[in-house]
Amino acid sequence: MRKKTAHRWQLTVIMVVGVFVAVGSFWLVQVVNQAGQDAQVDQHRNEPDYIIDRFSMVRMNKTGQPAYIISGEKLTHRPVDDASDIDKPIVHSLSGDQPPMNINADTAHVDQGNTRVKLSGNVDVVRPAGPQTQAMRMTTPALTVYPDEERMETASPVALEMGNATANGIGMKANNATREVQLGGRGQLVMPPRAGH
What is the rounded CA–CA span in Å between residue 77 and residue 115? Predict the structure, then answer.
């Protein structure tokens, strides 16, 4: 009798362990499948929801007037972070009382609700002369522009030409509305002599 009872206990223990192994294996397969599906969904979630070739968009100011135009070769929008990547971007500022400013670059990343544009690669900023301002040109490898605030900044090397004066430095902050430019780091400023001296 004892042998039959001992044999039944052994058989019961083996069956319980087998059930736990089977349930554990099923659970593990489900977890692995779910993780794979989540990764696939995340991968698809980061795919562009639209791509526009040769585009141009106008951003209006608070009074309903055009503030600036952003155009480029190709715009790729990703819904995950509501950001856009632009190939060969051109930012054309249309501020009312200041001369318009044009910014060209190799690429741009637009984020934060279209209020920040990170330009990179051969960034070239040109502002023509106006009634009270001299012509300006600035080149840098990278530049962050806040078009709504009419300001820009970079931590990269900058070469600046304003009228006949030239300056260079590492880092820059500029405000087109107030016409203020601050160069950072060590640099050089070359100003031509005044006329008549």
Answer: 15
Residue-level pLDDT, tens digit, the chain, 197 residues: 556 666 677 777 777 777 777 777 777 777 777 776 665 555 556 788 888 999 898 888 778 888 788 899 999 998 888 889 999 999 888 766 677 889 999 999 988 777 889 999 999 999 888 777 788 899 999 999 887 787 889 999 999 888 888 888 899 888 877 778 788 877 676 777 766 55
Find out whether 134 and 163 touch, Cβ atoms under 8 Å.
Answer: yes
Tokens of 87: 């190939």
Q: What is the C-alpha separation between 27 and 33, in angstroms, rounded?
A: 10
What span, in angstroms and rounded, lies between the C-alpha atoms of 151 and 181?
Answer: 10
Q: What pTM did the predictor assign?
A: 0.70
Closest C-alpha to 121, from 108, 110, 111: 108
